[in-house]
């Protein structure tokens, strides 16, 4: 296989543009010009990365996600990124940070979809003995 076979990762949403706008802040992806409240697409700035597609559905989220994204902060630290995501509308669901600086934070986007924030690449490189 010569390219990534995954074209989009699709997420159900009550308000597709609202949730897509939040995820644009998380990922640095761009909101496609033709996005609507029913269908919003985030296009990646990275070659061969899948887009994120948000499709409006009438029902709200009621159970834990069976699939979620693990996010590595593109700059700064995990804790700074958690603060940025909280300011953008996310909430902390479960905090798995450890006293030694390892661990992650499980968060929820504005509609309750879970995602995890891990340590940044720079944080892991500074302490290669820790995952």
Write up what this structure looks like.
This protein folds into two domains: 8-57, 2-Layer Sandwich (Signal recognition particle alu RNA binding heterodimer, srp9/1); 68-131, Signal recognition particle alu RNA binding heterodimer, srp9/1 (2-Layer Sandwich). 21% of the residues lie in helices and 27% in strands. It has helices at residues 16-27, 78-87, 121-126; strands spanning 8-13, 30-31, 39-43, 51-56, 69-71, 91-95, 105-108, 114-117. The longest helix has 12 residues, at 16-27. It is globular. The chain starts with 7 loop residues before the first strand and ends in a 5-residue tail after the last helix. The relative contact order is 0.18. The model has no long low-confidence stretch (mean pLDDT 92). It comes from Actinoplanes ianthinogenes. Residues 5-120 form the VOC domain. This is Glyoxalase.
